[in-house]
Write a structure and sequence with these properties.
globular, Rossmann fold, 13 helices, 9-stranded mixed sheet, alpha/beta, 40% helix, 9 strands, binds magnesium ion, binds adenosine-5'-triphosphate, single chain
Amino acid sequence: MVLPIFRKREWLEPPLDDWKVVGFGSTKGGAGRTTMTIETASLTAFIKGARVATIDWDVVNPRLTQRLFKSLPMRGQTLVRTITAKDFKKALKNVSLHSVAISQTAKIDVMPALSYEDIDQGVVDEYFALMYEKPEEYVKRSRELILTLKRTYEWIMNDYPAITWVALGHLSLSINHVRATAGNLVIVVDPSPWSAELLNSKLILPKLEGMYIGALVVNMVRPAPEAYRWARSVFEPICRKIGAANLAVIPFDVPLYEAGIGEIKNLLSVSVSPLKHKSRSARFLYSLVSRFTSNEREPRCFYIGP
Ligand SMILES: Nc1ncnc2c1ncn2[C@@H]1O[C@H](COP(=O)(O)OP(=O)(O)OP(=O)(O)O)[C@@H](O)[C@H]1O
Ligand SMILES: [Mg+2]
């Protein structure tokens, strides 16, 4: 049996019209989406004193949840539980996130992807069943979750799974999910010619039609002047083509790496910790967030980087 939605090639959700709802996406795993979500959310809360919510949409590899909670939570409100709730309206009404202190003065709120209880009780399976059997319902519920959270939070930062744009076959579930849940897309890529090639291709570009792209982030660039020059020269034309507001070149950075693999206990966000002085990237992340949170939203590829 072919599900109706599989035949519907032209499915393209209207983009969410809110530039303060950010989504971090890429086609490659390990490009740095979770790191960017945590650092950007933390800096936005820290610099602006804004109420910031983060959502971990990566149910298969819930690194944001694990990093901010130190491990998966045992139970409680989670993304999969909320999205699959029998009484979804009631679940939205009762939705509440978990606050995590990222410095002495700032906090961000987190919606964890899943808990151990969700795994044991089959809620994760229900989540994937909803996604694949009723993709339109899944996308609709996801959009409603964002709209509900926006009543409480000024900023929402979505950490998406690796295959953010192109789902299997021509089921464009992933991209439509992004279009419905982010009004400001941040594309995170590794500094390779292959990422540049893909970004330039028709595989991705047409699917971003009508979306506001806040930044193209070239992450983990080898810390050497020629590597920075290369990243800038290769990705700047692509940045212009996709019409992103900013182009950020972020060096490979030891504190970011160590925070990401859990090597430093109690370190959630490098950019708002004392370690920021040892971080090569912290000041670029700071510049990115300063521009990002201002009203400066012209698609002109403002360069941020070494
Ligand atoms: N600029 C950086 N410098 C050094 N290490 C980095 C940098 N950015 C990210 N990392 C490290 O790279 C690894 C992958 O980063 P991250 O988890 O943010 O990527 P992701 O795109 O969310 O990956 P996944 O596909 O697992 O969700 C982590 O260990 C992280 O600490
Ligand atoms: Mg991740």
